[in-house]
Automatic annotation (TrEMBL):
Pfam families, sorted: YceG
EC number: 4.2.2.29
One MF term in the entry's GO annotations: lytic endotransglycosylase activity
NCBIfam families the record matches: endolytic transglycosylase MltG
Native organism taxonomy: Bacteria, Pseudomonadati, Pseudomonadota, Betaproteobacteria, Nitrosomonadales
Matching HAMAP family: MltG
Protein's UniProt name: Endolytic murein transglycosylase
Free-text function comment from the UniProt entry: Functions as a peptidoglycan terminase that cleaves nascent peptidoglycan strands endolytically to terminate their elongation.
Organism per entry: Usitatibacter palustris
Record's GO cellular component terms: plasma membrane
Uppermost EC category: lyase
Family designation: Belongs to the transglycosylase MltG family.
Length: 333
């Protein structure tokens, strides 16, 4: 065989190899990858290369082998764009679909929901129980936890916005608190900017305190601005707020579910039966509606309200009216 014939044969072999490789690449790109389990979850750590991810997925049984997937990513220019996070597959996918998912950062997310009117202590307990959160706050005091969340306002109570927060599995507990704190600061600033100008409140923090009381005292949402008006009217008089939720908050863990007459007379910084004005801190996390109600209350002359037993209240302008309402809705039940 002449040198020319040998070179021609070698070129044909290279062409055949290229065609075979191309055919394999096309077939690989569109093959269905069966899941090792359903759902199949895997985590891409920050800084991981596509080669590392491919090896991991091959070891897990998702990819038949790692090299071709890595080459596919290199050819398409996506090897440097994969995103860290936890991914979830609910059905078989093709390598191309998988690569696109990694490049988009289409990570799975879970959520945690905080209810309006809950306290900082309850939030911390809820965070500790969430199985998908990275726990970093164990062993820390409430003050240390607040500091870790970036709180510079003193007491953490009231400073976290109750909402549903989505996050990638493995996110830290403190990151959730940071997001909730930032959300509350913005919500409070917006509410304060939109406030009625004649409010007997000197600072946004006082509005936050009042909003927390409104949150705890409101049973029916339609009454929220009326409840707020009672406390605003009392602050203008001035009259003591005389609201049970502040007493309960001041009792702390001593509260057993019942509030008694002796509790109303036992002085604490939060007892609004024994002390004038607002308590020193919020007593819970108020939601957006209570922030609005505290800063934009209804214009009324109401100074009293009593529960009717169905979640709503009877509002009164005078003590005489209030006493009649107490007899009707409380004493004769």
């Amino acid at each position: 065989m002449t040198i020319r014939e040998r070179l021609s044969a070698f070129a044909l072999l290279l062409l055949a190899a290229a065609v075979a490789t191309g055919a394999w690449m096309v077939a690989f790109t569109n093959m269905s990858l069966d899941l090792p389990r359903t759902p199949f979850e895997f985590t891409v750590k920050s800084g991981s290369s596509l080669r590392t991810v491919a090896r991991t997925l091959s070891d897990e049984g998702l990819l038949p082998e790692a090299q071709t997937f890595w080459i596919l990513g290199r050819v398409l220019g996506k090897d440097a764009s994969i995103q860290a996070g936890t991914y979830k597959l609910d059905r078989p996918v093709t390598p191309m679909e998988l690569l696109e998912k990694l490049a988009r950062g289409d990570v799975s997310s879970v959520d945690i929901a905080f209810v309006e009117g809950t306290t900082f202590r309850q939030w911390v307990a809820q965070l500790k129980k969430h199985p998908k959160l990275k726990q970093t706050l164990a062993g820390k005091s409430l003050a240390e936890i607040a500091a870790a969340a970036g709180l510079a306002e003193g007491s953490p109570e009231g400073w976290f916005f109750p909402d549903t927060y989505k996050f990638a599995p493995g996110s830290s507990d403190v990151e959730i608190l940071k997001r909730a704190h930032a959300a509350m600061k913005k919500r409070l600033a917006d509410a304060w900017d939109a406030r009625h100008t004649d409010l007997p409140l000197a600072t946004p923090y006082e509005a936050l305190i009042l909003a927390s009381i409104v949150e705890k005292e409101t049973g029916a949402a339609v009454e929220r601005t009326l409840v707020a008006s009672v406390f605003v009217n009392r602050l203008r008089k001035p009259m003591r707020l005389q609201t049970d939720p502040t007493v309960i908050y001041g009792m702390g863990e001593a509260f057993d579910g019942n509030i008694r007459k002796k509790d109303l007379t036992a002085d604490t910084p939060w007892n609004t039966y024994t002390r004038d004005g607002l308590p020193p801190t919020p007593i819970a996390m108020p939601g957006a509606a209570s922030l609005r109600a505290a800063t934009q209350p209804e214009s009324t002359e109401f100074l009293y309200f009593v529960g009717k037993g169905d979640g709503t209240h009877q509002f009164s302008r005078t003590l005489e009216e209030h006493n009649r309402a107490v007899v009707r809705y409380q004493l004769k039940r």
